[in-house]
Amino acid sequence: MSTSRLSSLLAVSGIFACWLGPLAPAHALPSFARQTGDDCTSCHVGGYGPQLTPHGIAFKLGGYTETNGSGSLPFSGMIMGTWTHTAKNQPSGAGPHDGPNNNASLQEVSLFLAGGLTQHLGAFVQGTYSDIDTRKFAMDNMDVRYANNVTLAGKDAVIGVTFNNNPTITDPFGTLPGWRFPYASSELVPGPVASPMIDGGMEQQIGGVSAYGLWDNHVYVELGGYRTLPRSLLRNANVISSGESADFTIHSVAPYGRLAYYQDGHKQAWHVGLVGFAPEVQSASGAGTDKYTDFGIDGGYQFLGTREHIITVNGAYIHETRTLDPSEADNHKGHLNRFDLSSSYYYHQTWGLTAGLFDIAGNRDATLYGADSQNGSPNSRGYVLQADWTPFGKEGSLGAPWANVRLGLQYTDYTKFNGASRNYDGTGRDAKDNNSLFAFVWTAF
Amino acid sequence: MKIHTSLLLTTLVLASPSLWAADASHGEALFKQECSDCHNATIPGKNRKGPALFGVVNRPNGSLADYNYSDGMRQQHFDWDISHLDAYLAAPKKAIPGGKMKYDGLEDGVARADIIAYLSQNH
Fold first, then answer.
1. Does B7 touch chain A (CB under 8 A)?
2. What is the pLDDT of residues A288-311, one digit of tens each?
3. How far apart are alpha carbons A141 and A162 in whole angstroms?
4. What pTM value is reported for the model?
5. Which residue numbers of A have CB closer than 8 Å to B's CBs?
6. Number of helices and strands (H, E) in chain B?
């Protein structure tokens, strides 16, 4: 299969292999701590982002603007150094510049504009350099929002508008794709051939405006729409290379909607929610359109107590239906489901253990998946275990509020990969061959 | 120093019947649960999103020079004695209209007394 043909299939199917594009990285930014005077632990479970506590949820929905008035500059940086081992070598190299196994990498060097710009306007804008793929500084996640506190129907509410470039990156609850566990992942391991479009399929290549509100500290609503960003902007921002086009061109506007019920009891907090995203994109042939409808249900629970012992449980199920141009898939209509469940325990906001499960299942389609799956199935299943240590981030910590660091060790195990446990790609590679050990040193300043 | 602290605490407790039975240890746990995201009560002058609460008991309201208080707080003039603290913890927005503390209040009077007992220890 030619490179151009493979690219076309990637474009129409929402396929994304982890080594081909940036993952949505996670963030805990000292510029927020400097602005508010709060510890990292106030807003983040485990003293490091991105899993938000109710206090962090309030800060985000408030437009990143809350401050203690002391004055600070809204700039931060982040560096993540990683080491990745897979159970079996990747003969063609784990990445464009990496060997077949046991690779050390400067996976992420990011600069942020992050914090309040005016009383009601705030930003979370990230640019990232990675030594793994293009080795260029490129636009990453962006969320610029205006927020205000009002009274609606006799109850307090925060309402706002956000301009962003990744559906679900605006969400405050930590269960949807933009911010779910694992918060850091290796970019030097094979990834499942498919995932629903809302799961990062269009990140950074589209821009959208959403209006949102949290009413009575219980009901969260967000409604918005996305369009593909101009090609010139994407090229200038190094999201795509010169000569490339965006993977997807959205017809009209792709609607995004979110509804959640949230309860913050200080000692514990929980939410349940629904999410939807429905892009209609130009097919790779240019002759027709491909329609994706993603609908998800999610929920999360946090036991916070005195913050000495914190337990969280997060889960989401996303169902995607799609109608593809007949020239691009065996099945005109298809579906793809994804289920994620994770639970974490943090002691003294310092030592953490997290376990996560994931399951991806969809209809078989040899044209869509045949290059990576011998039986044309996108089904993948496995689990992720992580232990991490965040020694700083507390009041009086070394470097506070100027720096924080997390050291982590993560193990990923596949019981099924691209449709099979054994010989999934026809070359003799088994699902377990992609099991990986990932170590990271992740610092923010 | 310890003698002075004990004397002050004793004076506070005797002067406030509501604190007689208060459990400062339980109050510390409640403080961590309800207040510590925004307030520090153990380090003098350590403002977070909310002002430092070390030594807050009987301190004039809005009196930390390096904290940016709301207009609502600046417009009132009182000392944070037991009764003011209790009323504020019960219903912050009612006690200080125009204040910026985003806390709905603590209905349980015993819990409030426990938190105040804990704050009374920190000065």
1. no
2. 899 999 999 999 999 999 999 999
3. 13
4. 0.90
5. 36-39, 42-43, 53-55, 58, 66-70, 217, 266-267, 304-308, 395-396
6. 6, 0
